[in-house]
## 1
Amino acid sequence: MQFPKRARTAVLAVTAMATAASLAGCGGGSGSGADDKKVTIWSSIDQPVQDGLSKTLTAEAKKEGITIDWQKVENINQLIMQRIQANDTPDIAFIPQPGVVGDIVKRNKAFALDDVVDTGALEGNMVPGTLEAGTVDGKLYGLLVSMNVKSLVLYPKKAWEKEGYEAPDSIDGLNELTDQIKSDGNTPWCMGIESDTATGWPVTDWFEDLIMRYGGPDEYKKWVKNETKFDSPVVKEAAAEFEELMFTEGNVLGGRKAIASTNFGTAGNPMFDAEPGCWMYKQGSFITGFFPKDVTSDLDANVGVFGFPPAEAGGDNPVLGGGDLATMLDDSQSTKTVMKLLSSTDIGNEAAKSSSFISPHTDFDAANYPDDLTRQVASVAYDSSEFLFDGSDQMPGEVGAGTFWKDMTAWIAGQEDLDTALKNIDGSWPAS
Amino acid sequence: MKLLSAVITVAAGIGAALALYWLLNKLAELMPTKWEERIKPFFYILPAYLAIIVYLVYPAIQTVVASFQDATSTEFIGLANYTQLLTSGAFQQTLVNTLLWILIVPATTVVLGLGVAVLADRLKPSAEKLAKTIIFMPMAISAVGAATVWRFIYATQPEGQAQIGILNAIWTKLGGSPVAWLQTSDFRFNSILLMIVLLWAQVGFAMVLLSAAVKGVPGDTLEAARIDGAGERQIFFQVVVPQIKGTIITVFITVTIAVMKIFDIVYVMTNGGFNTNVLGNEFFNQLNTNFNSGAAAAIVVMLMVAVVPIMIYQVRHFRREEANA
Amino acid sequence: MTGMTAPTQAPPPSETTAEPAKRRRASSFDPNPAKAGIGTKIVLTLLCLTWLIPVIGTLVTSFRPLDDSNNSGWWTVLGSLGNLTFGNYQEAWTGSNFGNAFINSFAITLPATFIPLLIAAFAAYAFTFMEFKGRDVLFLTIVAMLVVPNYVALVPMLKIYGFLGMNGTFPAVWLAHIGFGMSLAIYILRNYMATLPKTIIESAKIDGASHFQTFYRLVLPMSTPALASFAIFQFLWVWNDLLVALVFIGPGDNEPVTLALTGLRGQLGQGWNLTTAGGFLTMVVPILVFLSLQRYFVRGMTAGAVKG
């Protein structure tokens, strides 16, 4: 058969396309196996935190002859699970949810870190409980590199000091303080749980803080695994306290009906009006990133913070928090070396200076933090009896990112009573 | 350098596609005439079919299989995914909501799209262009963008604070107290508000297609009707509509199918909370939040079954068309 | 119900159909003497205003500092004109590698629009004007595939791409968009082509034109409005696509604008104000495409072709 001249051109074009394709390539993860002295990392953490960590890590890795390619991605949980099924993953992924780390382990794609990092030393210098957060079936798979602290109550410092309010040392004290603020003619609490696709998550933090205080850390851990049901005395005790603080007439700006529709990010802003619209806001350390510019320009002067108080004055005081767990999806020597670097206390030195980064290492040099507020937040964690990872992040997605948010929101909005909500949540727990 | 390599890649890609057809056509012409006629149609649809088989049929088959398997697609569990979904009260509500979307959105989209296409057709060209661009504009906004946009319509602030949502601003001006619109599920009110967002975003789609069809109606047929003394309404229903009926059906079916799997607007605005859940969103959450590929697959299979009546209609429509041709 | 889609009044083919490419706009008569009455104008104006309010709201918001947007409605902007700023735009532009991402977006979108259009046009032609075994079944399979969410294809394709080493390349996304857009493209084009007068095509055949010639010289030009419509949609979808790009290209050197923009948002949604600005930056291109392709929707195109 004669091969026409134009057909030859076509073949050339096809070849050109293939060449161009390979030229344009090299975007994705590097896959596992071969050690090319290049380590790719994916994370969803905020850009400034990532930039800071990356700066330190790149410099350290360079000494070992390793280059770092660190990318920020949206929704890392979903992306990683897809990539895992396709066997095409970055070498290290920062997973914000222990539940997802567990899912990765279940699919045999994560490598245990026990022999990679110095677990003995880490047990000594990390906040108690942080290693447990990344432990699956007795082995360490997720290493907490950066964390946030959620057992916090923020308040408008200037107005607060003028009124002479004092941080409470027990939950009863918190109730008394609430009444005191109210009797001064003010609205004690700011509250909002609206968060687009994730509406309801702030209320889960409230429950977690209360449950770990009323039931203690062990009961909390059982509850996270659904060994203690939602429909149980300890959860109801937490709900009763939440009701007392949030549903009582005059306790919350906008009242109960506004909670579900007020955005969590802006709910605290009325604290900084000339006449504070509300006086306390329980939120995670990251909330300062949502405050108005004139507040954040001088955080130390404007914002005060105290740790959510223990059930009894002087009692056990665990702290609720979250963070990003570095998970190893490749076992080349370079990746292990980088993982080891990530476990060092000093990895956060740069990040702390210029972002909301909080180190999970108690021996971290607090002088690196940009302001006193961050130092105070960090010390809430460092002084706590135990760090307990956000429970809803450890529960199965159906519950932790599903019914726990939705049914609690429905309860707060008055569309469901508490018993129904609790039973619905228990009922949604997947079989295995 | 970046620009250059991008240009080369693009040129090579497009060149290769053109060359492919040229080759296929040459190949067919090399055959004996009898074979050529028989084989050519298949050559013409071959690339299209390859793409569809690889990207849709093959995954669809996998999905059917996965729907009978457990969450991680490792074990067969029979119909468990289906029974679990269909017996759950929340899922039944999801089905009702989806049905509501299917009943309301496609018809409204066609009516609005056709209305704009026909009415704008009568304006002078510059005004027509402007009107159509405005209606089209929301299509250029991503779902996340649309959610941000509509936040400023539906947002609620506690009583006493300045409202940043225009709906509540008007409502409180009139003396009402702020309403959490997207959380008001009485009479599926919030679902309807979400549908409005989709209508806003998608009427442009219907308008573009219908406008092309309306413009395709030969001017002389309109002229003839006018000479016969037909009124504008008569011309519309008796001359224009019959001639663009094919496009109307195309748009209606396309929108219906798109609505069956509607996901992004619901996801970004309520994530199915407050009884606004729909199948597409449930599918997404099963797959990406619960990592339950079995349940997710079962939802897709239900959608594939639900599309059968549409296909039957399409077959009948086909046959009539053939008969009349 | 007649179910007729082809114009019944198709004029008899003239002897010049062998040279049908000589389309010209029928300019001898005013194709559409109907004039907009005052009612039409009012209805359209109201509709356009309704459509515009959200867009204007976003546009205004994109120029406002975040604290302003959080504290007062955008319609109160006249009271604080002095606060307006390009800050959001600046931050959106510099915060993500926008220039590079724009090139990538074009490199992804142009082939992913043109190639499916070409492939679909051939297939639609075959489905409309050619006789072959299994035609209806094959076409209906395509219609049925419309309902399959793209999402189910992501993981299987990732596996195949991983095997071929194609992840992260432009062709990986082109092919994906070709596959995902193909059903709708064929469906729309076939249904449009079915409304073209069959008589012309038949007479072309009688005149000895090959299928390739009929397709290229006759059917393609006559289908311009449908081709232009689909080109607009496909361009738009690919341009605004986040999902396919995220999964198949991922972050890095080849990321398109949509991916670059997501980097601006914090883990908990901080910085949404930048999405308003970023959104407007990316909107410009699809709107220009729409405007430039709009001129193909001109009355009398089919009629003109028929008259030759």
## 2
Amino acid sequence: MKPLSELNYSPAELMIINASRLLRDGDVVFVGVGQPNLACNLAKRTHAPNLVMIYEAGVIGAEPGRLPLSIGDPTLVSGALSVVSMYDIFTNYLQRGNVDVGFMGGAQIDKYGNINATVIGDYAHPKVRLPGSGGSQEIAAWASRCYIMAPHQKRRFPQKVDFMTSAGFLNGRKERTDIEMRGEGILAVVTDIGILEPDKSGEMILTQLHPGKTYQDAKDNTGWKLKSSEKVSSTNQLTDKELDILRRELDPTGTYLN
Amino acid sequence: MTKLTSLSDAISTHIEDGDLIYAAGFTHLIPFAAGHEIIRQNFRNLVLARATPDLIYDQMVAAGCARKVIWSYMGNPGVGSLRIIRGAVERGDLEWEEYSHYGMITRLQAGASGLPFLPMNQVGVQDLEQVNPLIKRIPDPYGGKDVIVVPALNPDVAIVHVQRADENGNAHLWGIIGEQKEAAFAAKKVILTAEEIVDESVIRSDPNRTIIPDIIVDAVCHVPFACHPSYAQGYYDRDNEFYLEWDKVSASADAVNAWLEKWVFRINDRSEYERNLGEATINRLKVKPLMSKSINYGDY
């Protein structure tokens, strides 16, 4: 039988597995539903068994017995370490500095890693009205490290977002540093082409490419003039074990994998 | 003193046109039965506040109950858009006011604490602050960085669904407890709906689980299955299929009107709604028990 890693994998699987590798054992992670949830559960089953997953609904140390379908799924509660109010989760846990990692998504991500999840077009007369911040405005500010997972598309990666819902490096790293916010900011954007990381100025540049992808692919799908690091490395091949856990244990119906 | 009453009497007695309503519950224990009763009684010009408007406010806006919605995440959780509210906002047919989750629940916490406002740390971005004049920044009087402040939110009526309550309104709830306590203490009036009405001795057997005390409650209604398609931890599961179905129904005004007609206007109460859902759906949402270990309070 052919190993799974030689089979085709989806762009979603590529992003989830690479995002899971960014997590460290012992991290306290603010988890979102869908792909970030899969990345965290995969890390917990591989290199980070002591990962603590917390959810904005107020659940700490969740060990979901099935694939959670919403941020407040009851499977997150049964068997969790603790359940607290939303006010407690945003104050005692996030604002106080007890969260290591936040996962972000958004309709638009700009050159400095700022995220728009609020509106396309003018705020008062929206062309497309999006859901809004939810927990993301504070997570982006106060989690120690933040990561973004997003398919690499030009319309999704504009030079400047229409509305700044959550902070990356604002108009440059200095602006974020001057405010002395707790979190370090967006440290990686994992796409289906590669990984972008902030340079000294806070601009997102290409630092890694997935197997078979090129710098040109990334440039063609980015709305600003995408720079790259001096040496662009290649991300490691997906392993059979990672794909197997994702497909057979975590999301057997493929809800978030295709 | 018993506050037991029917849901329809509780809604007609305590709600008025133009009221600011907070139907609490973050994904869990969402009081759909009360929302449907408000639709049936044809209330108008309500201001509907919820961190996550969820399908309940999408349905109430579709039925014409609201002039304004206040939210911090306006989506169909785990599915996508709330098409009715989103469409009304994009067309300019509905007023709205927006916060982050933290801003929204800080408004409730200030209201629940009897304070005029509460501070939060800065978040770097200022766009929301610029479009919502109620979000302000003030100097830290102790010499630190400026803080962001939001005003107290004191709803006219909070509606809270709980797993069990006594007839006076002492309520046990568990699972995700979102912003129920803050909404109840912040509101001027509280309508409680409960899966079970229990004897006061049951409440007294586990006082740490009493999140809402009777002294702030105005009406207690026994309404089993009140949360469908949301869920009640330990009682029944979330009906995710319905959340997906609403995404289709809400794409057409005719389909929405037909849905409201069938599931709200032509239905008298929640028990009829539950019967109409049918056994197959009820069985699909049943959940196996998983009991907590009991604790010893000590007999002093």
